[in-house]
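Q: I'm building a small set of examples for a reading group on sequence design. Run inverse folding on the following structure and report the sequence directly after it, with nothing in between.
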């Protein structure tokens, strides 16, 4: 059974930092693109960041560019999201996702329908 399990969420003051982790089990994702999405109450899910299979290429949404950084450790079958300078508008449930196709292209995906596996989410709350 394939699972993606997020951790690291919590309550933080504006301007603070958090590091989200996503550990995969049930299969390796070392040759798959992965990403982070978020969904705030009453809003649609939105793309946050994506990373290619090797980590050589990344893409961040404009709303988080310069503050958030996606990275991965294929040896640990894990992906991370370092979040700095957090703002109240970053409050949301954050989801880890993995594309199901093995590919050695440095492609990064930013649409939800391009991801086949999803975690259960971790809550991030930023107080102003």
């Amino acid at each position: 059974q394939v699972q993606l399990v997020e951790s690291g969420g919590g309550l933080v003051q504006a301007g603070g930092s958090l590091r989200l982790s996503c550990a995969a089990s049930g299969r390796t994702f070392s040759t798959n693109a992965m990403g982070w999405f978020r969904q705030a109450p009453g809003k649609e899910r939105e793309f946050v960041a994506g990373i290619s299979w090797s980590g050589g290429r990344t893409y961040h949404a404009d709303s988080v560019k310069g503050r958030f950084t996606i990275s991965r450790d294929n040896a640990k079958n894990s992906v991370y999201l370092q979040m700095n300078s957090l703002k109240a508008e970053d409050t949301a449930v954050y989801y880890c996702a993995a594309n199901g196709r093995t590919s050695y292209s440095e492609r990064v995906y930013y649409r939800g329908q391009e991801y086949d596996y999803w975690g259960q989410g971790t809550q991030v709350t930023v107080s102003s």
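The CA atoms of residues 88 and 116 lie 29 Å apart.
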